[in-house]
Known about the structure:
Helix 1 (about 45-60) crosses helix 2. The protein is α/β, with parallel strands linked by helices. The chain contains 10 helices and 9 strands. The protein has helices at about 45-60, 65-95, 145-160, 185-195, 200-205, 220-235, 250-260, 280-295, 300-310, 330; strands at about 25, 30, 110-115, 120, 135, 165-170, 210, 240-245, 265-270. The strands form 3 sheets. A 5-stranded parallel β-sheet has the order 7-6-3-8-9, with helices on both faces. Strands 1-2 form a two-stranded antiparallel ribbon. Helix content is about 40%, strand content about 10%. The radius of gyration is 38 Å and the shape is elongated.
Amino acid sequence: MKSFSFGSNSNSPKSFTAYPSCDFDIESGTIKRTRRSKKLPLHPLKMIKSFANRFSYYKKLHPILVFCIALSFAVSVLVILLAYESHYWQTIGYRKFNVGSDNYPFVRLKNLVMVAGHSIYTSSSCGKVDKENSWFLEPYQQHPGQAASFVAHIQEGVEIVAKDDKALLLFSGGETRKDAGPRSEAQSYWTVAESKGWFGNEESVRWRAMTEEHARDSFENLLFSVCRFRELTGTYPHNITVVSYDFKEERFTHLHRSAIGFPESRFFYSGTPGSTTSKEAAMRGEALVRSQFQEDPYGCLGSLWRKKLGRDPFHRTIPYPNGCPEIEGLFRYCGAAPYSGSLPWAQ
């Protein structure tokens, strides 16, 4: 319906609408008011109760389907919480170790020289380091010349570091023998080096000779020492040199090095001979251990794992990988195939 204006003249500014802008009932001559919908306030408790009633209804109607949905939801929440927790602790770990370079005691050292421990020094006198009865020896180690071979390892490590002013010396080995008491292989080697005056290199080597006191086998000697190097320097080693028996070279340079993905061109090995009276038996034992690491490169299964547990008589808590959060995945990995995650030295 059109609206017309009425007034004294056509130019009058005043006008009105003939019928109001609403529904008009012609028959009754009344105006129908439009009913506005009332917005009811939201009541959370009523909504929850309504949802619960519907859930109960569907549960009775389709119990298996509702159970599957509820289980999927619970699993999703759990996965999210676990992922958040992992991220949280990883962030805390990075914050803890993301300190200035001035706070690391050996920030300028770039190369790692690791001497793998094989026994614990038990004598109260430091003048008998080359005597077998001064060391705690397993039955297979009780041969003439065995103690002298340990001293040879210590001396070799010291002399290598003395020739490299960028190297950090680490004696590696934990508290592996119950009857030897709570003394570590690493501390034993450091003490012997101290008693020997660092073989004439005290001034240049002693201040950068440290210990790694948690390793329980040769793989942990290498991996834990890499983490310990990170704790002390703030970085990972550019070059690694391992000192041990000459017949263990293949185990370290091929199996253990490959397991941690360290570049072959930056990995070196210095082997010294074992006791001449036990060479044949040592070679047989080494062949067996090497075959075990070929099947279980990370020493986390079967006989290698059981041997590792046996070498932890005092149930020491291993602090790693807290000091090297960038390789946490490598520490957690267990498998026959090489670790495929990212590694700092592979970048």
